[in-house]
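Q: I'm building a small set of examples for a reading group on sequence design. Run inverse folding on the following structure and report the sequence directly after it, with nothing in between.
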C-alpha cells in the first residue's frame, strides 16, 4: 500500500500512528509530497491533491485520514480503536479534533500563501476562535489514554501536536488539563514521538 503524505502533515501523522498501533506500518510505502510544491503535488493520485492518500495495490484510492484509518482498523481487525457501539460519539469527537487541525492549517496557509500585506487578520481570528472553542470542549471531555488509544484520541493528539509544531505550544498555558493529557498520551503511545515532525524530520 502506498501512503502519500508529508513529514509535517498532521492528518498524515494520524494515519501513521494508527498504522503503528494496528501493526500495519511496515506494509505502507510512505511517499512524501511537499504540498507547497506545485510540481510535486502532481504525483499525488488524489484528484483533490490532498494528503494523506492511500493507494492500494489494486489501484483503489482511499482518501481522508479518518476513512484511511478506518480501513486500516478493519484490515487489522482492531475495531476497538473505533468501537461500533460508540460510533457516532467517536466520529463526532474525531470531527471536532480534525476541526481544530483544519482551522490551524488554514491559519498557516493564510500566512504561507499570501503576501504579508494581504493576510486577513479577521480570518485568522475566526479560525483561532475555532481552535480555542475545540480545545475548550476537549479540556472538559478528556478520556483516559492507554497504550492502545482510540482513533478520536489519536486525532486529538495530532491536533495538539500540530499546535505545538506551528504555534510553539501557546495553547498549553490556557488548557492545562489537555496539556497533562497529551503528556500521558506521549508516554503511553511510542508512535507519537516516532512521528513527531520536530524530532524526526
Ligand atoms: N479532511 C482531510 C484533510 C486533509 C488535508 O487538509 N491535508 C492537508 C495537509 S495536512 C493538505 O493536503 N493540504 C494541501 C491542500 O489542501 O491543497 C483529511 O482528514 O485527510
Amino acid at each position: 500500500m502506498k501512503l502519500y503524505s508529508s513529514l509535517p502533515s498532521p492528518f498524515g501523522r494520524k494515519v501513521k500512528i494508527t498504522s503503528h498501533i494496528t501493526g500495519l506500518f511496515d506494509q505502507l510505502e510512505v511517499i512524501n509530497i511537499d504540498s507547497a510544491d506545485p510540481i510535486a503535488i502532481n504525483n499525488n493520485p488524489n484528484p483533490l491533491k490532498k494528503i494523506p492518500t492511500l493507494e492500494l495495490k489494486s489501484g483503489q484510492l482511499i482518501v481522508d485520514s479518518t476513512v484511511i484509518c478506518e480501513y486500516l482498523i478493519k484490515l487489522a481487525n482492531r475495531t476497538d480503536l473505533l468501537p461500533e457501539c460508540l460510533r457516532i460519539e467517536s466520529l463526532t469527537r474525531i470531527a471536532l479534533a480534525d476541526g481544530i487541525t483544519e482551522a490551524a492549517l488554514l491559519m498557516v496557509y493564510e500566512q504561507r500563501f499570501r503576501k504579508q500585506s494581504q493576510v486577513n487578520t479577521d480570518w485568522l481570528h475566526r479560525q483561532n476562535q475555532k481552535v480555542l472553542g475545540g480545545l475548550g470542549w476537549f479540556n472538559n471531555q478528556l478520556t483516559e489514554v492507554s497504550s492502545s488509544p482510540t482513533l478520536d484520541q489519536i486525532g486529538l493528539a495530532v491536533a495538539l501536536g500540530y499546535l505545538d509544531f506551528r504555534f510553539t505550544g501557546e495553547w498549553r498555558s490556557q488548557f492545562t488539563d489537555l496539556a497533562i493529557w497529551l503528556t500521558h498520551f506521549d508516554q503511553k503511545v511510542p508512535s507519537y514521538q516516532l512521528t513527531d515532525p520536530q524530532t524526526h524530520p
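The beta strands are 2-5, 29-32, 53-55, 61-63.
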